[in-house]
Amino acid sequence: MLFLLLFTGLVHAETLQLGEIHVIDTPSSLYDFIPSTTALRGDELQRKRETSLGDTLQKEAGVNSSSFGPGAGRPVIRGLDGDRIRVLQNGLGTMDASAQSVDHGVPVDMLNTDQVDIVRGPMSLLYGASAVGGVVNIANQRIHHAFEAGALSQFDVRSESAYGGAATSARLDWGKSQWMTHLDGSWRDYGDQRVGGGGRLPNTQNQQEGAAAGISRVFDRGHVGVSFSHFGTQYGSVAEPVVGIRLRQNRFELDSEYRPESGPVDKIRLRSAQARYRHDEREGEVVGTVFKNNGNESRFELLRSRGDWHHVAGVQTQIFKFSAEGEEAYLPTAKNRLAAVFSFHEKRVDNTTFNFGGRVEDALVEIDDQSTERGFTGLSGAAGVLKKFGAWGVGFNASYTERAPTFQELFSSGGHVATGTFETGDASLKKEKARALELSLRHDNAKTQSRIAAYVQDFQHYVALIPNGNVDAGSGFPEFDYEAVDARFYGMDAETRYALNPSWSLIGKGDWVRAKNRNSGDDLPRISPPRLTAGVEWKRGDWIADAELQHALEQHHTADSETNTKAYDQLNAGVQRSFLGSSGRVSVFLRLKNLFDEKARNHVSTVKAIAPMPGRNAVIGMNAVW
Q1: Is the terminal CB of the chain with fewer CB neighbours within 10 Å at N or C?
Q2: What pLDDT sits at residue 30?
Q3: In angstroms, how far is CA 458 from the centroid of its own chain?
């Protein structure tokens, strides 16, 4: 029956709804079926942009950051992080080492990012079992899907007082004779982070350089394009005063689509990314450990829409080799292969939408020096319904996901200096099985856009890193073992925007999540505390101003190996003025972050004790488009 689902229908992306859908059409499509999606773009993304991806998204409902100083931060969604959150660039994996350790940055250029989409809840049907907690997609326009004659240029510059440095980026898009060309570049030079109450956090400097080029040919019935990007950054490791990380990645992307004039398929889409990633952990000029990840991810999709039926089916493959060499190489050299087929279908009946789908995923891990391998076949399925009552919508979604343990969870062995632990994997681990339910309520009209969602996710064989009570004699680190336990995550998140009049809007956000080890009854570590945010936004003519206050409650639901984290308040405010000319726009902005200069600590961070969040920060910048 599952294979029948996988091959019975194909989809048209622009008309696909899948309950409450969000489609990234510039430049890539990312599907969302019930539950919730947030898109950051334009002025809003500019206001929230930080050095790392995780810190950029940290104040969104249901999202936090792993925050290993300003140089590294990965999204944490509804309490889940690492391999359970899929981070994509233009719909394909980033192919880095950020899921393996919290001190490893995500190699994406936030200065030249056009849009970031956050999908909360399981997305494993379409993007893999590692999307069991959610998806974050970073989109840029290096490969164009549509033709536009002429040239468009953009230039940004900003300076931040909390880091005593500046950052700049530039891009050029040019179209002629159905060809589109793209160039972009970026540069950042930041010093040590200032913390609340004064003083600087040692070894938190950050430098970045990036460059990219793309070319696309746009046809009447589709497009084909390729791009190349280089990203490099060098930042200090806050956990080790004299250690720095030099990270770089080269990435090629292919994006193509063909829309047949007739036949059973509306669209045929092929996307592929090839990446070479490396980062060196250095003590002064001496390289201690080198991490590499070289691989490919590809997606082939067929899309179809007929009447009230909409379908998507496809094949996804991943092939990558991860290696760690040097004195802190606690991970083995591993070859990883994955192949999957998936399909999702939707039927609309009056004001009700039904959807269902399935995925089969085959994963293989090979360890070079041990002649060892583990293979897993995972099955996933989901079904949902959305009922609309005028401006209101009520949705219910259920899913089942099987995730294969990673090579790190299976075979790691050694001291992990960034977290101060000695980690030991378990080669006998079974598949992690998750069952999730979500109930959502939405309200959308001319004045109000609101959503609230309640969820529960039960895991069988949840792979957790648990202390065994011993201390490793060689490193002096406490010993932690990867073990399979039963776990439950449950909570709520909500956001609303209410327009008082054409100029004034009120904004509210909130989230709450708990996570328990069902075997012992203990709380799981590093779970975000409850948070509430209230804000106001004013727009008139060429002016935009806003202010928001976020209150994080004390986190006292802690695991045995961690301490409570105090409550904190952070007030942010900003103003922007745009100047329109005959051929472009120039915007200048001033933003003040953490106006109270509070010395706040992020409970989700493994280095909260030594690395508080940034103190008061004045950001001044300019954006020009012509």
Answers
A1: N
A2: 53
A3: 22
Per-residue pLDDT band for 368 (boundaries 50, 70, 90) equals confident
Q: Three-state SS across 241-293?
A: CCEEEEEEEEEEEEEEEECCCCCCCCEEEEEEEEEEEEEEEEECCEEEEEEEE
CA distances from 624 to 60, 209, 214 (A): 27, 20, 21
Per DSSP, the three-state class of 299 is strand
Structural domain count, the chain: 1
Q: pLDDT (tens digit, 9 = 90+) per residue, 2-46? A: 333 333 333 333 333 333 323 333 444 455 343 457 889 888 998
Q: H/E/C letters for each residue in 28-82?
A: CCCCCCCCCEEEEEHHHHHHHCCCCHHHHHCCCCCEEECCCCCCCCCEEECCECH
- The DSSP code for 112 is G
Site of tokens 């106001």: 536
pLDDT in tens, 392-414: 999 999 999 999 999 999 999 88
Residue 589's nearest CA partner among 59, 55, 43 is: 43
Integer Cα distance of 183 and 173 in angstroms: 7
What CATH number is associated with residue 446?
A: 2.40.170.20
Residues 6+ apart with CB under 8 A from 546: 47, 535, 536, 537, 538, 573, 574
612 secondary structure, DSSP code: P
Strands 115-120 and 37-41, by their bridges, are antiparallel
Residue 371: half-sphere exposure toward Cβ, Cα within 13 Å: 0
C-alpha 435/C-alpha 569 separation (Å) is: 35
Output the pLDDT for position 372.
Answer: 87
Please report the DSSP string for 477-538 in residue order: PEEEEEEEEEEEEEEEEEEEEEESSSSEEEEEEEEEEEEEETTT-PBPSSPPPPEEEEEEEE
Nearest to 179 by CA among 148, 206, 208, 156: 148
Positions of E strands within 149-205? 150-160, 165-176, 179-190, 193-194, 200-201
Number of H helices, E strands in the chain: 5, 33
Residue 275 CB partners (closer than 8 Å, separation 6+): 94, 95, 96, 249, 250, 251, 252, 293, 294, 295, 296
- Domain, as residue range, for 126: 2-625
How do beta strands 286-306 and 309-326 pair? antiparallel
Which pLDDT score, from 0 to 100, does residue 35 have?
45
- 423 within 8 A of 416, measured Cβ to Cβ: yes
